[in-house]
Design a protein that fits this description.
Length: 142
């Protein structure tokens, strides 16, 4: 059984440039709720699982919701990648953030820049990890 290789690209995520697209975000537990408000102020469509009453929902329920609502999951949790792989699912896209201590404005800026650089990958479905200024991603299904 062959696997698709991971692709790694340096992310210019701290650069300031305008975003011309709009994404539908679902922020997982552990990420600041106020980041959703910042994204919404930037003409994005963002919700936090806590605002949906899903703060204690299992990851599978969050995946189902995100898939049904065409949302990109943003999480600190690696379990979403594994669940998508086991299900051979092609949606939803998941971004795992592996940077500690990001405040709401930093997280929102990071997501806007990731969306700008990786629009096609996010819309077609992928798993992504951001760490140390780099993005590692793989197209779904895996």
């Amino acid at each position: 059984m062959s696997h698709k290789p991971f692709t790694m690209r340096r992310c210019n995520c701290l650069m300031e440039y305008p975003l011309l697209i709009s994404m539908r975000w679902l922020l997982d537990q552990g990420l600041p709720r106020s980041a959703a408000a910042i994204l919404n102020n930037a003409q994005e469509n963002a919700v936090h699982v806590g605002d949906l009453g899903m703060s204690e929902a299992p990851d599978t329920a969050i995946l189902e919701y995100a898939s049904a609502e065409s949302r990109i999951i943003v999480t600190l949790d690696a379990d979403f990648h594994a669940l998508l792989a086991m299900a051979s699912a092609s949606k939803p896209a998941v971004i795992q953030i592996r940077e500690e201590g990001l405040k709401s404005p930093q997280l929102a800026t990071l997501l806007l820049q990731i969306a700008k650089q990786f629009e096609k990958e996010l819309q077609t479905g992928c798993v992504m990890t951001f760490f140390g200024g780099k993005i590692r991603y793989r197209a779904l299904p895996i």
